[in-house]
Amino acid sequence: MKQVLCCLLALLFTPTILAADMPLNMTSGVTEISNKVFSLHMTILYICCAIGLVVFGVMIYAIINHRRSKGAVAANFHESTKVEIAWTLVPFVILILMAIPATKTLIAMEDPSNADLTIKITGSQWKWHYSYFDQDISYYSLLATPREQIEGKEVKGEHYLLEVDKPLVLPVNRKIRFLMTSEDVIHSWWVPAFAVKKDANPGFINEAWTRIDKPGIYRGQCAELCGKDHGFMPIVVQVLSEADFDNWIVEQEAQASAAAAEAQAALSKTLSKEELMTQGEQVYTAHCAACHQPNGAGLPGVFPSLIGSPIIKGPVADHLDVVLHGRSGTAMQAFAQQLTATQIAAVVTFERNAWGNDTGDTVQAADVNQANSGASSNTDTGTDAGTVAEATQPNSAPATPSAESPTAAEEPKALVLDDLTMDELMAKGEQVYLGHCAACHQATGMGLPGAFPAIKGGAIATGPVESHLDIVLHGKPGTAMQAFASLLTPQELASVITYERNAWGNNTGDMVQATDVNQQGQ
């Protein structure tokens, strides 16, 4: 208590520049806004301290000099107009003096216009997803603290619970606009060094911005109680020089191309059960153990057990569907966009054979691709899914279709270009819309006036189909509308466009198929 009192007294008589380095005080941060917030904090603190000194000074003076032992006689008066005016005007003037700098700072904090870079931040239990507009870069950022440290089996590291596998990378000296939303519950993206703290609400978009002055690594965390693993949702931001950031963008684009090529090549590979189990355990620990527990037992009443579960023991196709597309109304997320086909195949294989489940099933990347493309699965309980993979895409088949391999050339077409009925398109389109579009345009299609246009009755959704396809495929430069050509399959794109053109009373009657999407994209 004595140390705290000493620090507070020292803070009162310390210049603002030196006060920023005191351990109990707010830090000044590394942005213009954070410096304004710090200056505002110090201004208000000094005003409050001055008021306290005056009030307590008068009280102490009165107690000492007007005590009964000195023969003081209390004045007897009431309803003094002068006193009433004084104790009304003085606080009013003080509040005005405090409100002027506070209002200036708040207005500056809420001005994300003319940004050089826009990043969409999506919170989910319990990870962050970052999407760079105009660069087509998108990835998830997960806690990287080893499970052994969390369970107390190892000594905690320097940045315990404040380290991630992939940090958000930003440049210095550029205005960065953040669009924040959530896939499930309310989260809050908070980095103290930037003076940015904004709630991420499901179905809504909040805006914030920053311009960082110094390169470095800055840490934060979710500042909203978002569930049982709220404390395991850190934020790490790596700030690079402008030249290094531009080089990083080029590297990420190259890595994305390499990853896409690797994912395509993986479709023709057949991994052994041991390889799938090893990789599947790693994926499960990183992405599933937070809810279902490392031993698969889940949390009764909250997260179901995977030991002997009907999903695990049932048809492989149903298991894949839940992992790929999630389950509406529950905390089960869709992992189709979070994990590669190989990772999903491995984790499904692991879940079906770990903890005594022992179904004997193995799932390959080709099976995941087939299930994600909307084609019917041929795998059942007790059937080795690897056999199906070998039958549809044998290792001897060339990766690129050719005239000598008509089966290999025709198979992808059968997987992703089958015509669907209106009901099938609408059902699938609603899933895609809620997963990728509702955060901006709202689940009701009403958008956010001034930020995101309404699709309900909108000119794009009720106009020519070609224009609708073009904007969904290629985005719209200068706006937050990103290109989905590389993010969704042709079947998903066809479904969501059909849904948008016929939902909320639009009722154009138009149906779009995967072949139309492919034709438009060429």
From TrEMBL:
Region listing for Disordered, in residue ranges: 369-410
Annotated EC: 7.1.1.9
Signal peptide location: 1-19
Entry-linked InterPro entries: CcO_II (IPR045187), CcO_II-like_C (IPR002429), Copper_CuA (IPR001505), Cupredoxin (IPR008972), Cyt_c-like_dom (IPR009056), Cyt_c-like_dom_sf (IPR036909), Cyt_c_oxidase_su2 (IPR014222), Cyt_c_oxidase_su2_TM_dom (IPR011759)
Swiss-Prot/TrEMBL keywords: Copper, Electron transport, Heme, Iron, Membrane, Metal-binding, Oxidoreductase, Respiratory chain, Signal, Translocase, Transmembrane, Transmembrane helix, Transport
SUPFAM superfamilies cross-referenced by the UniProt entry: Cupredoxins, Cytochrome c, Cytochrome c oxidase subunit II-like, transmembrane region
GO molecular function: copper ion binding; cytochrome-c oxidase activity; heme binding; oxidoreductase activity
Membrane-protein topology: Multi-pass membrane protein
Main location: membrane
Stated name of the protein: Cytochrome c oxidase subunit 2
Compositionally biased residues, Polar residues: 369-395
Amino acid composition bias (Low complexity), ranges on this chain: 396-409
Source species: Shewanella insulae
Electron transport is among the record's keywords: yes
Family to which the UniProt record says this protein belongs: Belongs to the cytochrome c oxidase subunit 2 family.
Residue ranges occupied by any Cytochrome oxidase subunit II copper A binding domain in the UniProt entry: 114-251
Gene designation: coxB
GO biological process, one term: ATP synthesis coupled electron transport
Enzymatic class: translocase
Note accompanying the cofactor annotation: Binds a copper A center.
GO cellular component: plasma membrane
Function: Subunits I and II form the functional core of the enzyme complex. Electrons originating in cytochrome c are transferred via heme a and Cu(A) to the binuclear center formed by heme a3 and Cu(B).
Domain Cytochrome c span(s) in chain numbering: 275-355, 424-504
PANTHER family documented for this protein: CYTOCHROME C OXIDASE SUBUNIT 2, CYTOCHROME C OXIDASE, SUBUNIT II
Parts of the chain that traverse the membrane: 43-64, 85-103
Domain spans labelled Cytochrome oxidase subunit II transmembrane region profile: 18-113
Subcellular location field: Cell membrane; Membrane
